[in-house]
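Hello forum,

I keep getting stuck at the same step: I have a sequence, I want structure tokens, and every attempt I make locally crashes halfway through. Rather than fight my setup again tonight, could one of you with a working pipeline run this one for me? It's a single chain of 210 residues.
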Amino acid sequence: MTVIRGSLESLADGVIKDPEDVAAYYQQMLAESQYLQKLIQDLLMISTLKTKEFKIKQEPVHLSEVMSDTAMSARGMAMKKKIQFVTQPPENDFVILGDYELIRKLLMLILDNAVKYTESGKSIYYHQTDRGEIVIQDEGIGMDQEAVSHIFKRFYRQGKGIERGSSGMGLAIAKEIAVRHQIEIQVESTVGTGTTFTLVFPVDKISVEN
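Reply #2:
Ran it on my machine without issues. Output:
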């Protein structure tokens, strides 16, 4: 808001007159307003997820389908950073009761986080175990155990590697979606080596379809 107000005051007072400078100020204000919009949307989403009255859908979700869907989107993000995205189709078709869109959002948030913290030339691995667990492993910058203990907190950002425009709410939202579906998110990380997120689904809600 400070940047937007300062830019508007400069333009309104006629301090900025050069057409190229005026265009640059407008672009800066547009970028800042887009960031604020995303922040507000993220805050509204996490507030909704925390509301007891909010009920998630309880429909059969084929994990192979949602993984294929998210892999396509994540591969595009990885390609832009020249990151190799490695995935493989699961051997079994696991099904969980829940909300397809929310589970997709959960996976995309973790995949987006992996892309943000992985440098060009490195790899991200995305697969499912024979027990139905979904694994997202990156060769990113990694983190120590102190950082791991904070990553699901709102507005937390881990040092370098984060692009401007991130609200710092992604993993906090992912955690709330996981809680709503009784999904456990396990995190293992080593500084300089990378991070692995493993989603463990409740045994009473997951099944295998032949």
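The chain has a mean pLDDT of 89. If your local run keeps crashing, start a new thread with the error log.
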